[in-house]
Design a protein that fits this description.
about 160 residues; alpha+beta; five-stranded antiparallel β-sheet; 2 helices; about 10% strand
């Protein structure tokens, strides 16, 4: 007798194959999503540092609050020196070096670890002798043993090397 349908063994085999494919694809997908978030933060850092430069040229002083800057910011409350975006905390004046042409430290973005397992910082490593305002950003895991965050920094090509 010819019955229409699938046997239990066939269904279990298909479910197993789908599970294996999902297990292989999911980590790569999550890394891609994290890279997109980091890229968005990098764009914000560059525009905020440009706004710091503009503020310094106009006022001859460093901004103390984000509300003083003319920039598109990733938060609504900008009357502070630190703002929380959706995935990053941006802190004004915390980068280790000054924005070129100013005495103002740049902005640093720190990944908000809200269950994502990622925790790293991104900033622009300006040097006092650099005339090039387009220096590449740098990234480092908050914890030296955080291999997951280190992988993101490496994949962005921004991993900070020991100086």
């Amino acid at each position: 007798m010819n019955k229409l349908g699938f046997t239990l063994t066939e269904l279990l085999t298909v479910v197993l194959i789908i599970g294996v494919l999902a297990a292989v694809a999911m980590p790569q997908y999550m890394r891609s999503v994290e890279r997109a978030r980091a890229t968005e933060a990098m764009s914000s850092i560059k525009s905020i540092n440009d706004a710091i430069y503009t503020y310094y040229v106009e006022k001859e002083s460093c901004p103390t609050f984000f509300s003083q800057l003319v920039a598109s910011l990733p938060a609504s409350n900008t009357r502070t020196a630190s703002i929380d975006g959706k995935h990053f905390t941006f802190a004004l004046g915390t980068a280790p070096n000054s924005v070129p042409g100013t005495s103002c430290p740049g902005v640093m973005a720190t990944r908000i670890n809200s269950g994502s397992g990622y925790s790293y910082r991104i900033w622009n490593p300006y040097t006092s002798t650099s005339a090039d305002a387009s220096l590449e950003l740098q990234c480092e895991p908050v914890s030296a043993s955080d291999t997951k965050s280190r992988t993101i920094c490496e994949s962005l090509g921004l991993l900070r090397t020991a100086e």
